[in-house]
Amino acid sequence: MKQVIECVPNFSEGVDMEVIKRITDQLESVESVKLLDVDPGKATNRTVVTFVGSPAQVIEAAFRAIKMASEIIDMSRHSGEHPRFGATDVCPLVPVSGISMEETVKYAHQLAERIGAEIGIPVYCYENAALSDKRKNLATVRSGEYEGLKDKLAMPEWKPDFGPAQFVPHTGAIAVGARDFLVAYNINLNTTSTRRANAIAYDVRERGRAKREGDSITGKIVKDADGLPVMIPGSLKEVKAIGWYIEEYGVAQISMNLTNISITPVHVAFDEVCKRADARGIRVTGSELVGLVPLNAMLDAGRYFLKKQQRSTGVSDSELIKIAVKSMGLDELGPFIPDEKIIEYQLKKGTGKALVDMTLNAFMEETASESPAPGGGSVSAYMGAMGAALATMVANLSSHKRGWDERWEEFSDWADRGKAIQEHLLHLVDEDTRAFNNILAAFKLPKKSAEEKETRKVAIESATLNAIKVPFEVMKVAYTGFEVARTMVGTGNPNSVSDAGVGALALLACMEGAWLNVKTNASDFSTHPDVLKILKEGEELMKNGRLSKEQIIELVHQKISQ
Known about the structure:
By secondary structure, this protein is of the alpha+beta class.
């Protein structure tokens, strides 16, 4: 999966939109970075900006924006209601997809080090990126704010993690962190009572409610030795919640912040509120996601609700999203449009039409055109994807076969495996064309001077090696599809045996086509150690692939004759 991270820097300017635009222009100057939201606040004199992209692109964009802010925002003249201590006050990185928190922390440290070294701003790392436990909490790191920063920097225990340990009046300091994705999520109730909505909110939120003597509503609040209320924790970790009434819709809602959706996902929060509301005689009628959500959050929700129905989860992403939307009533107050609400889909906008997004007819016509790409490599990968899709189809049909109800999970697991293979091969359809185009681009590089010739030579070699590795990856991925096809022929729905057999034929055709591409592109680099290794492994892989196809087709004929 492509690595995507979100960055949410807070800049200490919320009034002058020209200043804000100069900062966001820096973000948008980095290719493929997607600016999602700019939220200025006049009272706080602060602007929260949200953008996403690949880690390297996000780091570069964040650095440029922070550098611009250091030049055009003067903290010595700043005032606002929100706590702050720098021109760019905080800059958290958030893993969205294809990347772990540990990897995100490393990128946060890279950014922090670069800010300190190249811009000369004192940098503190917080939350998951903190280099010491006492600096995890942002409020602690920012204590004293800008006005107390000069004295704070003079204390040895508050030496910055990166950058100079000296007060820079113009810029102040910055906190760079890594945190989990926060989802703002509201659940709709069939009541207008804020008090009842709050009661449910207290049931589920991690902080819970204050303990009372005797009557749980009117009793005296129990306090600890320090005079603080004793709290009865709620049922959901990493969740903040409150009840309120929305006049626009005429209903009460549970307004929630899910601060770590890997601990409490959206669908778990929804189901728990349903349970608690039902216990109080209240019904949940739907819900709404405020802002954007990672794709995986929606896919996980779809799988969760399908599993509750004992149905296969190895269906398309669009079907999983549809199930999630309908199950949680995400379209009750307005349409839920995936292209607008899901981060990864937002990133796709404006990036050009991918081959796999074309209709079958358009892809065929593009292949048949005078352009050399897409060619045999992309078509091979697509044949493999279709082969895996057929095996996946049989798994899905088998999971719903009458009389096989107790086997639904077995076939659902196989469908999931088949879906992963077909999606990987679909990704490689465009990768193969990109690899070919990169070779063409390398050959077009100038070659007048000795330096240009060397640069061109290196570029050609690098592009060609990649154009060998991509179809080899197609071969390896397609080969894993035989296991799904073989199992579906052997134990799947007997009415669909021939479909799984056709899937095996398509998988071998994919491998044969990709193997031709490997050997063609390797012809001028046959002595390169990496290429020699690929050619040796490819021969063995093709031998095993052909044998697998023969075994599966023989089994298909046996099943048909029975």
